[in-house]
Amino acid sequence: MDVDTGVDDALALALAVRHPDVTLEAVLTVAGNVGLDLTTRNTLRVLDWLGASDVPVAAGADRPLSGSAVDAGHWHGLDGLGGARLPDANRQALDDGVGYLVDRVMAEPGEFTLVCVGPLTNLALALRRRPTLAQAVREVVLMGGAAHLPGNVTPVAEFNIYADPPAAANVFQQPWRVTMVGLDVTNKVVLTRADRDALAEHTSPEAVLVREVTRHLFDARGVGSMALHDPLAVGVAIQPDLVTTIDRAVHVETRGEHTLGQTVVDFRPNTPVPPPTRTRVAVAVAAARFRALFDRILGLALA
Fold this sequence. Notes:
Layout: E1 2-3, H1 7-18, E2 27-29, H2 36-49, E3 57-59, H3 73-76, H4 97-107, E4 113-116, H5 121-129, H6 133-136, E5 139-143, H7 159-162, H8 165-172, E6 178-181, H9 183-186, E7 190-192, H10 193-197, H11 205-213, H12 215-221, E8 225-227, H13 229-238, E9 243-252, E10 263-265, E11 278-285, H14 287-298
Helix pairs in contact: 1-2, 1-11, 1-13, 4-5, 5-8
C-alpha cells in the first residue's frame, strides 16, 4: 500500500491488516493529507496499534514532482490522524521508500498489487527509476479522481490527483492494469456519527481505532458522516465486483488554470480505447455489500 495516512487511510490499513485473504507486504508513505513526517508517524502508529509491527514501513516523497505541496489538515486534523490518542511506535520507518518499492516489485514480477490511496508521487518516481516497473506490477488500484462528480478540492479535482497532477498523469499513461476508485463511488460509502457512537463501549483495537481517528471530524468539526474513500479501494483490490467499471481512457489535466488535477474520462461511446491507456473506471458501487464486508472484517457492530 502507498498511503498519506490520515483518517480514512488508517481505516484502509486496518481492513488490509485484518482481511484473511490479504498479505500486506509493506507500506510506503507520501506527503499528502499532512506532511511526510506525520503521514509516516501515523502509519507506524496505526500498524503497531493493530499488532502489525512486522509490516515494513518506508518513507517516500516529501513533496510533489513540481509545484507547491497542498494538504488536508483542515479535514484530518493538524496531526493528520484526527487527534487520535494512540501510542507512538517503537520503531522507525525505512528510508528511500521509492527504492524499496522498485526493489521489491522487480524481485517478484507479476506478484504485487499496489493499492495507492494518496498522491501518486512515489509511483511516478519509481517509474522514473525503473520504467519497466509497469510491466512487473500485477495491477494498480488507486483511490483518486472523479469521472462524473465534482471534485472535493476544486470544482473538478479530487485531492489525491490535485496534490500531484504530473505524477497522476504519468501513472494513467502506463501499460499496466489500473482501476480508478474515485469520488463517484467512494462518496456513496459512508461512516456516520451514529455508527461511531455505537462503538462507545467496544474495546477491540479496531473499534478504538475508529473512535479515535474520527475525533476531529465528529467531535471538533461536528460533521454527520465521512466517506470511506480509502477503505473502498482496499475492498476493490480484494473483491473487484464491489464496483461496476467501464474501460476508458483517463487523462489528467496538468496545466489548466481552472481545471488543474481534473481526471478527464473519455465517455464518447464510439471512441476506441487503445489497451496501453485503458483504465477501469469505477462508476457504481455495491455500497451495502462493502459496508457489510468492512464491518465484518473489523469486527464492528455497525449499521
